[in-house]
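Course assignment 3, question 2. Fill in each field.
Student: A.L.
Task: Predict the tertiary structure for the chain below.
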Amino acid sequence: MQTTKVGIREFRENLASYLESKTPVAVTRHGATIGIYVPTKPTAREADLEALRLREDARTHHGRR
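Answer field:
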């Protein structure tokens, strides 16, 4: 898997986009790697969780549990 190399300042400024990425990121300071961010499998998004909550509320409201 390809690794992206970025400076610590760029990593900090673009953190949200790196967190959404599927590519590992090597964080550097003065050209030396000081850390590596390795993304994990994404979890359910908030909208998915809300849909499940609404479904459960509907089931409970109709007496099904």
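Instructor remarks: Helices lie at 8-13, 15-20, 46-61. The chain is about 45% helix and 25% strand.
Grade: pending
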